[in-house]
């Protein structure tokens, strides 16, 4: 066999073949098939075609996360239809409203593992690249086909490699790295590419790796990949063993044995290098994710609503950074700060560690774990003319439900500092020496 990228190896494994070539179209059998609140719409199409039973219900994973709790009768009816479908089809891997955002929940449950493939009816399914899994978003009709047949065709993507060196400095996060990449290469710089990271990945926390793989969806990536290491195997093994009752070490060995790594001499379409220690806080300005500027160039812009959450940045590390900035302080009088944990596990741990108390005392609102106002159909929507600073992933016009609002994207640390001052603010100005970077825990 010739040298293979991660994407080639993962697709070959899912296709049951020794190797595949770039550009080739192959039929794959993914390990997992994901859907969320869109499950009802897919099920309606499924039944209209005369189909009655899904091919393999044990490979389906369904969450309720996009509008939880349901804000309207229409959303409540949608959830009710999904629950009926789950019961009719005997789907075991179903996570109710309040458990959290699909990508975070599946990671915490250690369902998806390194080297596996997950195809999901959500563009941010690239998320699972954090652990070295092949995750790709597909359309609703493709998920229907997967339900019916268990298989789907994929074109083997070209791959690009991004090598990271050094360590993130004080006040700079994985979100800033991603925004810098978008600025340099454009929002379509990874279009239908396998974006494979290399280099000093061990300098990044598990949660920071999740940010990178998840956010690559906004780079146009077909999938993202960060090579898994011992910290990834341990993180997953502890959770899987807790769920299955198996010995942790045996689980860890099995997970590590199935991990995939690109060959040293694999061929990449393009290669880029970034020194983490040379990065600075970045902000995506309205109305495009690649309209990115260094924070220093937009500092001082008025903020009305600050939002910390979403599948990109609603994890414990993010909430901890916000708490570090807001501890003993109050947000600006004309600002609302909304914090929505990505999962019930994150919520409970943030409560146990006292982060939520700090945020509430600072004037923040805490939401139910889920997607919140990110896509504009749930609570927390801005008013016309308001300015939002968000830790989310998208800022195109109308993304949060209000076409006349302006959305800036930044790290949770920047969002918290901006809520404190009422204007876009560098968190380093607030903390003056306290660690916010994600190379080491807060």
Task: Characterise the protein shown here.
With 442 residues, this protein is α/β, with parallel strands linked by helices. Among the domains are: 8-155, 2-Layer Sandwich (Aconitase, domain 3); 284-431, 2-Layer Sandwich (Aconitase, domain 3), CATH 3.30.499. Helices cover 34% and strands 17% of the residues. It has 16 helices and 18 strands. The strands form five sheets. A five-stranded parallel beta sheet has the order 4-3-2-5-6, with helices on both faces. A five-stranded parallel beta sheet has the order 16-15-14-17-18, covered by helices on one side. Helix 2 (39-48) crosses helix 3 (73-89). The longest helix is centred in the first third of the chain and has 17 residues, at 73-89. The protein is globular and about 60 Å long.
Uncertain runs: 435-442
- Percentage of residues assigned to helices: 25-40%
Strand order in the sheet with the most strands: 4-3-2-5-6
Strand content: 15-25%
By CATH reckoning, the class of the domain at 8-155 would read: Alpha Beta
How many helices in DSSP terms? 16
How far do the termini sit from each other?
Answer: 45 Å
Radius of gyration equals: 21 Å
Q: How confident is the prediction overall: mean pLDDT?
A: 95
The biggest sheet amounts to: 5 strands, parallel
**Looking at this structure, what is the CATH superfamily of the domain at 8-155?**
Aconitase, domain 3
CATH hierarchy: architecture of the domain at 8-155: 2-Layer Sandwich
By secondary-structure content and strand pairing, the structural class works out as alpha/beta
- Overall shape: globular
Give a count of the beta strands, DSSP E runs of length 2 or more: 18
- CATH topology value of the domain at 8-155: Aconitase, domain 3
